[in-house]
Model the fold of this input.
Amino acid sequence: MSTLRPLLSCLVLPLVLMALGACSTQIELRTAAQQEQFARESASRGDWAQAMRNYADAADNAELGHGDAAWQARLHHEAGRAASAACRDDAAQFHFRRAIALAKQASTSSALSEKALESLQAGKPCGVPR
Done:
């Protein structure tokens, strides 16, 4: 009985799995960009609840696709803004906190998210924070 076939499959299988993983990463990033565009369109129509969902989905896909931390931070910040406009303070706080953490990881400014989070915690009425 030949051991060449099992040995060959042990060598080929990891390569196939790596190729599939790279392909799925690109799909996740493309999906994130598309969801970001959908979110912008929803926000421009004033549909803040839908914009929040789209930005949150975009952020999730960017994370799954190992997207840039600064991009993920921006997506979470926009999800927080949309959640705040939709009067979903719990979701807004979550997204602003996530944006702050990712911005620090990416060594970019988190000042806008910090200001928006402070405004929420101060009990300001819901609306679109800057």
Remarks:
- Residues 40 and 60 are 16 Å apart (CA to CA).
- The chain is about 80% helix and 0% strand.
- The chain has a mean pLDDT of 86.
- The longest helix spans residues 4-44.
